[in-house]
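Example 4.3 (complexes with small molecules)
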Amino acid sequence: MKKLNGNFDKFNLAVFISGRGSNLKSILDHSFKKNSLYQVKLVVSNKKNAKGLLAIRNKNIKKLVVDFTKSKSLGNKVLVKLKEEKIKLICLAGFMKILPNYFIKSYKGKIINIHPSLLPKYKGLNTHKRVALNNEKFTGCTVHYVNKKLDAGKIILQKKIKVKKNESVRSIQKRVLKLEHKTYYKAIKKVLSSF
Ligand code: GRF
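Answer. The structure with 5-O-phosphono-beta-D-ribofuranosylamine bound is encoded below.
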């Protein structure tokens, strides 16, 4: 982090979403705190009706609504925008698309994701349902680097909670989501401190 006129330059972040955006909201809330290392400069959504987009209304944050994973020319446009905004880290937060390889390569080691399970267990979708069906004693969430294999990049931070006896899928989902909100910004801080 560079020091300019006694102030620290914050790292510029982009957050990619597809839906509800509760993790985006939590990342944003933390960015407004006094000693935050980062600011969110850009939000990319592949869905125009993503509820998460409401979180950046009336804020000085750029928005791109495009399913750029469909074509390389769209992907390159997003990459240009990311460079323009001097984005240092991309946070996937409920982004339901697979990033193309060329995209991952151009932000190598600078894309992270949050997944609602104790990876490497329960990669992919419906994690909480599978946790409940298998009577797992613990579950949790994992923030990891993104590589070309699904939910398989190096783990940055993992937090766990105990699954209650006969706990419903809905209750597990709710409690893990709360844990995600506490975990994502800590993982971001960890990554940014290593830059
Ligand atoms: C979260 O559970 C996240 O771990 C998963 O998708 C969900 C997104 O929720 N990848 P939200 O859009 O951040 O509310």
